Amino acid sequence: MFDKALSRLKNIGQTLHKAPAGGQEAAVAAHAAAQLQGAVLAQTQTPDAPALRQTADAIWACLGGPGNVRAFEAVAGTRLRVELADATQFKPQQAKLAGVLAVAQVATQVMHLIVGPQAPLIAADWRARWRVP
After folding, report:
1. What is the residue-averaged pLDDT of the chain?
2. Are 116 and 78 in contact, with CB atoms under 8 Å apart?
3. I need a labelling partner for 123 at 20 to 30 A (CA). Which of 19, 51, 64, 80 fits?
4. How far is CA 33 from CA 9, 14, 17, 56, 76, in A?
5. What is the pLDDT of residues 65-85, one digit of tens each?
6. CA–CA separation, 46 and 130 (whole Å)
7. What is the pTM of this model?
8. Handedness of CA 45, 75, 65, 105 (dihedral sign)
9. Is it the case that residue 122 has pLDDT exceeding 70?
């Protein structure tokens, strides 16, 4: 069941990404499809809870502490979008050791941490334990 839903979501995402640029509806729909895809992936995987907690903690530590994190969310099923108060506190080498595959700098204080399909699970763990402004 999840395989069919995931396949359909991938097709929707590919179709939406081919939509003409500037279409706000397409962008909103693509974001919703990516979030849903992440949720489906999260449901189909049964990660080792202690290992996931350890990864979540290690990635959180490389962000400069809870006072440095302004916002975070899982995006595109494989990324953690984080907004930092001070991006210079981010520790890229520590992030790689923690399991971050790559980092995409989106804006001065916003980055995407590519962590794989566990991104929604890590974000859920963070939401359950830390509050950000």
Report:
1. 80
2. yes
3. 19
4. 6, 10, 11, 24, 8
5. 888 999 999 998 899 999 999
6. 23
7. 0.65
8. positive
9. yes
